[in-house]
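tool_log.txt
---
The assistant was asked to compare two proteins side by side. It first ran the structure predictor on the initial sequence, then on the second. Raw inputs and outputs are pasted verbatim so the downstream comparison step can read them without reformatting.
(1)
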Amino acid sequence: MSTPSNTNDNVDFDENNDLSTQIVKSVAIEVPHGDNRANFDGPGTSHAELLAEIRRLFLRLEAVESQLSRESSEDEAYQGVDYTKAVEVEPTVGSRRMSGRSSLDSAPTKDKEMNGTDGSFVRKSNKKKEKTTPVRFEGSAWNIPLVIGLADVGWMDTCSAAFIVLANLGMQTAFSGLLISEPFMGESFDSNLESARIWRRSVAHDDAYIDLSGGTAVVDACTGLVSRVCAVDGALILSNKQATLVKQINAFLGINKANPLTPQLFQPGVLLCILCILLWTLCVYKEIRGVWLFLEATMQIPRARCTSFQNYAFSQISYRRYCLLLWTYAARAAIAGWLLVAGVLWLARTTSITELMLNAVALNAILAVDEFLFSCLTPIKIQHVIQTLDPIQVKYSRRRSQCETVTHFTFISAVVLLAYVLLVGPLTDTMQEVKRELCGGNQTFVVTYNRDAQLTYGLVTNKAAARNDGQLSTSELAVNFEEDRTRGMSGESSNWPFCIETNLLMEGTLTGNANLQPAAEVMLRNAGLALGYQMVSDCAQLSHMCDSPNASLLRLVCGATCGCTDAVSSPFYKVPAQGCSQACLQDAEDKLANLTCENNETGRNWDTFWNTYEAALTGYYGEEMTQTSVWNTVTSTVQGMLRHGCGYLEVEPQDFVTGVNWCEGLPDLFKPLAHICPKTCGCNGFAADELPSYCPLRCGA
């Protein structure tokens, strides 16, 4: 019997003869007749069973032909294909074999002609074969809309599948949004630049964090915090963030101890970062390319009002389902593109080479959410339908394949190149700047700030204990350093045997001295910094701050501007503890040596003294005087002094707040009022050697 067919499952194609490219037109099966039937029939095999077997074979061949007819574009033969060769088919029935032979019908004479030598047919048409490639739909939650409502499942499975699609969309959208958010990305590495500057100018050289080998201030060797951080000292208990940052920069740029500020030619972090960005780009591009192929495959299915789905194949698809699939592909591509940008930014901000690979792998897990949902939660019958869908043939020419290859390489190369130029390259430059801020310059010194004297003192570290070059050893420097850090303003003002402003900053006897002039200018700048002014070069710039409680250093440097050399200025702050040096105060007394020992409130800032009493006491105690319980008493005293002058000192001889005698003054705040009211304070009638210390020298007989 003969049945039309292209091929069947039992045909053994010979690859060497290219039978896989031949079109099988028919299969002939020879059935034994007559006496041979007895030989064919074996034990337990009847004629009816044989016919049933032949019918089953016929049905199988017919199904194969139906399937291959849809793939005829792939089964067209090339020129020179032999159509005369036969294929043997030997089905087995019981323990016997039935031999048969299939022959090829002659090909159409329109496209073939007989070869005279071997009798084969040769294709005459010069039309090139049109190539196609099968596109299979992967097991993904994104592909559930393709078959939802078409699979033979219950309403519970259908609702579950729809929920999985929405959950997949929500999860990937949420991941994409969080990945690009500022809390997740964190601050840019550039923010470390300013913090490094602040750390280096404040904590890094603070003497409070010095490593003292002997445990005391007098040591033979000491190391500052900056030196320990830049050496990545494992015993650090402070500035661990800076030490970790230095360690990451060294590993990322390949910096070694020999050249602590110079990156090496081979930079492990840069190479690994580029490789991780390339890996992530490939992962995302695989997703994008898959979306494009699925879109092309979907466009090959004819559209109609209703979807036709039989034997796991689409004959046509409805417009609504087609639009749903297009929306799904667009959402999938948008999420993939967003993840590509966010992932590249995140990887380019990762400065720890140990975390780069982990971050790249973690990013890939976001793309696999749809596969996890499909494998774990999708109903098994829907899984089966998607996995057994017939592939859809998409036409691919050689030219198109080459164009796509160029596109693939161009896209991947462009992403990686832009990531390096815009992100990784600037990151390495910023890392070098941060390293220079943290560890550049001189590391071998520490400083301390004397709040009382408002001066900063330094100590050189990492020096030999014994010096033969005449310089101080570390031990000697440490002793001087300890004295400087604990000395108050009274001691600092006593160190200057002359008035700084009149002798150095003005046209004085020491102006231009190579040793003293720079020191005075530094002190002036420090005075300005203590009051919030930078790069002060003249005392007149700060004259309005002279009566500030925090201007003790300013009064030391600018004694003439702040009234320390004026005997008739307000007594407040005209004491060594508030910055006026003894030399400046002596200059003021020398100007009044010829005056008589009489009271003289006029012209001596008597009113100024009492009007500034509240502000001066508030600054001295650090508490608002108007809020205290004694303020009413203080107010009455001030009003009495302003109204009656020096005579009121006999009524109120003692300050109610400080407890000191007005005539004797308060050494920490104001000079004795005996300089204004010597007669009321009883400074008359004393010999020079018996004169009370608070009385002016001119009162001594």
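(2)
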Amino acid sequence: MPVPENAGGPLFMRYQDVIVHVDAKGEQDYTGYRVRLLNSAALQMGNLALGWNPANGPTTVHTIKVYRNGEVIDVLAQAKFEVLRREDQLEAAKLDGMLTAVLHVPDLRVGDELEVAMTTTVSDPTLGRNVSGLLFLAPTPPPGRYRIELNWDKDRKPAYALTPDLAPAASVSADRVVLRMDNPPVRQPLKDAPPRLQWQRILEYSTFADWPAFSRQFAPLFTRAATLAPDSPLRKEAARIAAAHADPLERAAAALKLVQQDVRYIYVGLNGGNFTPAAADETWQRRFGDCKAKTALLLALLGELGIAAEPVIASTQGLDDGLAAHLPNAKLFDHVFVRARIGGKTYWLDGTLPPVSGPALDPVLPLRGVVPVTSEGSPILDIPWQPPTRPDEITLFDVDARAGFDKPAHITSTAIVRGLAGLQLQQQFSAVPPAQLLDAMRQRLTGDTWQTIEDVQWRYDEKAGASVLKVVGSGTVDWEGTGGGGHQLALAGGGFSPPEKRVRPPEQDQQAPWAQASNYSCYVTTLRVPTSTKPGEWTSKPGFNTRMFGRQYYRAFEFRDGAIRMVRGSRIEAREITAALARADNARIPDFDNSMAYVFHEPSDVKGRIFTGTKVPTTDEIDWLAPDVPCLPPAKAVP
């Protein structure tokens, strides 16, 4: 494509070809481009780095040329690639076996045109003759000419599908589909829409017949990997677990903990291991493995214990929304764990999680759909969502100010965190000795609020599935004078910020639903008021109970036994809301009460107006780790 005289930006793509050819051995991926370098920011295009997995096939570089004032410079005649074996994800415990070839184009200048062309052969030993993948155009490509092509040998035609925005650019014939685009416009993601609606300018292809065929492809791999040798030491481990526990769920929990605790996590993608699990005996012998290896090991133990279980393949990157509408594609997934049936219920067991995470009725990871791996083949299994019944986070703040307005208060702060975030804290805090944790918290917290830190206690409650961090000390209370000897204080964690409007740019779909991440938070503050005051001298801001944008907002106060008690809860009630509801709630935002949770002391013997009629417990009055805590209104929220 000719370079326009007014070309702006760092570069202009004179052409870019991306071609996938499907044949009897797998696929060949070709990339070729010629680019004009318009300013110095584009010179980094001369730093070429090609990555490939040698277990899947070679990469061939066809040409690297520089065009300058009518001269053609053959870069490969004067510079060579250096091939590196770099495990660049060792810090994440990953060994992927990738090779990287690097070449720095010498003497590259602004105004030059750089042309590169290469082909990579892909033939994954696990997938056999099956191939699958995605071809796409980035949302913000540089201006220029683009061609995307999928072609195939006569008897190897894959199924393919185009997102609607590519249909005008498509040309289809008997052995190929070609997409041609000149100066494609910028396509921003659909703002805050569900992941399934974020697919733009994508061509997907697959030779799997359907999702059950995809499931069947992996079944024998895990069956073989979970088959134990006659003299396998894992048989003895299973026998030990069976002797120690009579209940099947306890046996499953013990087997899971063994896999989590005694086998460290290392991703192994060497020699075709990207999709193939290591044998259970091998994993146990070397005591490390990735999610595939840990899953096979756990399946072997559960099989010995007579517990029915199967692997499930999952995506942790948000690609599992609306999976059934897409073609089967191994590249969409990055995780595998176990689904077991025990006592008539379904449990999820993940060998890669910390050993405090036992069998669960719901997956710990926020998944929408998985592929069960079975010999008969399984379709996509949708994982239903409902509002969480227990808060993901509870913050308890107990302020004992009985000594007086001008005296330091005794403060106890407790943070309860569940789910994946709680497990991350478990990994973090379990590695820190108590004395070191106390010192770190003193360094971090001592300042404006905390004057002293007396004690720091952390534990992980396996029954509640929660990290619990308790900090005890003394600190100042930010009383504000109101004149006439009065005081006011904003209780910690009690305020709500007004929600943001749900508005999309005019060029985007205005009828698309709005998505939001599941969340349930709770703040509980207890203020033990100065003993020099009387109950009738205290007032507060009103309570709060409403729902907007599919989210419940709740706040309640009570004054009892010399303590002001406040609870403030917020929970997502709908993971998606309609565009109509979003527009209606946009109009309600000006009426949203975003006042802070103020309490007021007025020493004039007025009747207290602090109480909402709802009983609110103090931070130490109930067990806040219990499955049912009063963080939301007892009745349905006001619409």
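---
observation on (2): Helices lie at 211-225, 233-244, 248-262, 280-286, 291-304, 419-429, 434-445, 579-586. Residues 407 and 593 are 32 Å apart (CA to CA).
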